[in-house]
Amino acid sequence: MVSSSVFDIKEHVIPGEHTREYARAKANSQEETLVLQVKQYTPKGNGAPQKGDLNIIGAHANGFPKELYEPLWEELAKSLASKGVRIGSIWIADCAWQGQSGILNKDRLGDDPSWFDYSRDMLQMINHFRMPRPLLGIAHSFGACALVNLALFHPRLFSSLVLIDPVINMHNPGAIQGYMQPPSMSAKRRDVWPSRAAAAAAFQKSPFYQSWDPRVFDRWIAHGLTQCAPDNPQVTLTTTKHQEVFTFARPSYHAVTSDGKSITDMDLVPDMDLTHGVLTPIYRPEPSLVFNRLPHLRPHVLWVFGGDSYMSFEAMRNEKLKATGTGVGGSGGVAAGRVTHVVGEGWGHLIPLEAPAFVAEAAAETAAETVKRWQVEERAYGAWTRKPLAEKSQIRPELLDIMAKALKPKM
Length: 411
Hints:
The chain is an alpha/beta fold. 37% of the residues lie in helices and 18% in strands.
């Protein structure tokens, strides 16, 4: 396996969130436990973390193991060191049905995962390790959608978010005919090779992988493949193509009339968007559900878009920038200076795998500002903690006075 000259790496296995979004996410029982395989990256020489060290939560794209983001973390560590920002640790889990988590759970996985399960699993990870603030979330693709969902139901958890070409759209991708292509391609992809070396040779010939940073490609060969059996040199995909397809698209054909005009069983598709006119045989509810709640997003946000990404055409970018943080409970959005963006021209949806240094430099600027803001907030909180306990835990006299005046009969 690929080692790191930048980080000390620890592996953890922890329980995931108990109740899943859909019953059939678990194969045998609603009560069985799915586990998460977590990696913790601590910069070498930072064996004694300090208060105020930045802790980073990562989340991966569909079908790509968490280890592919190690070059991004290494570039980010270098950029932050040049700015005098200390990293406590970077934490990232494979979602429960993919990567090493998927291997650990293989006898317990069903066919109906939710992106929001990943949101809750990330919260479970943060709570399990009692991670100190400030927290910065950095996530890619479907993982970015899951991260935003977490920030929406726990608005103060993250100080800032870096969202890399996220799958968050005004319109449900299931309603777009072209969205059939990714799950169709995944369903047909080859998933067994005679050896790891044979697989590497095949991947090297594919234009899909030729745009990747070589360090990312090396980690794909090391972590994107797993032996079929201990005594068998054959390898297969670490994330099965079945779970990859289930993540791309949720079936609705069994709950929609053949003409696509009405739903026959709402219990089967309780979160299907009915506003698109034609109901499709597959759907994915999370992208539009999260998009519609972007106005309420409170953390500072950096959007990182791939200039050539099919998920980030200019109109799609503008929709996100216009919506983010502008509603009740939101940050104030672009107008308040709390939502920014960069566009990586010439790179596509896989920009963190193609150009980790570009993404890291943009993220480092956001991270440095995150730490500065947290320090201001922490000083204010620290001053309050030094007040007498009675003053902190009892009704303040001025509040009693305000309430009394409000209730006083008007003459």
